[in-house]
Amino acid sequence: MLEVINREKGRSFTINDLAQLLDMSYAKTYNTFQALLEDIDAIGHGERISHTVTTINGNDLGIPLDTYRLFLLKRSVEFQVLDYAVQSSRPNLESFCAQHFISKSTLLRKIASLRHFFEEFNVSWSTTTLQLKGDEKQIRFLLNAIYWVAFHGQEWPFRTVKHDYVVQMRKDIQTQQFDPVTSLQLDMFLGLCRTRVGTGFSMTSMQDYQDIFPGSNYFTAPLLEQRMYPTLDKEALNNEALNNENQFLQFYFHIVLSSRANGDDAFTELYYYLKKIGGIAWDFTTQFFQFLEPYQRRNEPSLTGNHMLVANFARSVVSIIVMKGHRFDLDDFSASYFIDDNTSAMSQLMYKYFDQETGNPEYASLRPYRQELHHNLVMLLAPYLQSVQSEDNVNVYLLTEHNGFYSRVLEIFLHDLGFVHIMAETADPADADLIITSLANPVMLKDQLHIDAHKVFIWYADENSKQYYELYVRLRDLYQNSFIDASSVKAKPAVVTDLRRAAGNGE
């Protein structure tokens, strides 16, 4: 409800408005709204807000959605016990149950779904010691994602590690400049790592990472020092453990955190270093792009020449090797509806490449992680789907003027969607999945064009953000129905003869 109200700040809602938007009864909507007001009062944002059924307004509520989510999360016993387990050196289930007046059986029932979620990523949550067990790298990535999404820059979550201390630590060790959000993410990650070390869970071996980046180099250089852990003695964090922490941090810097070109040369350094030393990650990457060349459209830029894409592809391979499978990230919180792992053209090409290389002993160490590697790389390549000759693109024919600024902006918008292929001007519009036209009623062209009105989207000269969104939804649905949910394609609507009605956005 708060999300709906906040989404359109400045608009006033009645209870009936909210009931319709949320598909709820009037009574349930009214009671939910009153409960929302009580929660806002409990959060402490000023005096209790009073609303009538005609004055519900997002501007007046004065509470961001992230703040309310964190408030609800902190009240949930599931998060309370997880936070207790993470930040306590000796967590005890019975002690927690006694402090929170909850039976052991009830608590275990409430956290069952969370334990199952962890198990999907090979991490178990003990019901006796409350300790998380599994690969320490994966545990940290899981916890880091949970704490980041939960607190989202609103407050510092870790009780035994001061934020100011972590900020100084980050400034001492960071090898490049980051934007404010990335810096905050790094602070959160360092705080979590410091908490894990402080509760007795230092990093395990990072030998696989060091094998990929052998010797002393930019990607393995020591960043951490014993002085950065003043509350720990040398027995708790010996030289071997400190080296593992350092290599894990370097792995996070170069393989996890730096995956886009944001004004720095991080991906360039990785690209040229791997090209220089070779190895399994680089060889697997370059051979794939050589394999892909015959399938690329000739009117699209070569993917092989996209150094950032090649570097990110190699980065995914490195991650699979080091993690011995999939590394948890924020995308794992939501299922991907945008591209099917098994049926998309890029997926089929990836399988073909894997089948071709199955007998290559050079890639024997990658073979057990084929499925995870396939998933990660298909998702990485999804934005470049239009570069591949396949039927997995939404073919769009532009019936618009080509001599204006806004026409060029439209083409850039379509190209950046990744799954859209803009057809040549000489192509037959009848072969298009969607025809975007600036001519709402092209009577003078009726003898030259035979347009199926179902395929038409009217693009008005005074286009706005709403039109871009409507166009995106139309294209997304075409892609979804044609290539992902083909078995449940909706029936076509009744025949539409007026092109102004065909777009669904005519005035």
TrEMBL record:
Domain of life of the native organism: Bacteria
Keywords: Transcription, Transcription regulation
Mga helix-turn-helix domain boundaries: 71-143
InterPro entries with a match to the protein in the record: BglG_antiterminators, Mga_HTH, WH-like_DNA-bd_sf
Family matches, as Gene3D superfamilies: Winged helix-like DNA-binding domain superfamily/Winged helix DNA-binding domain
Xref: PANTHER family: CRYPTIC BETA-GLUCOSIDE BGL OPERON ANTITERMINATOR, TRANSCRIPTIONAL REGULATOR MTLR
Protein name as it appears in the record: Mga helix-turn-helix domain-containing protein
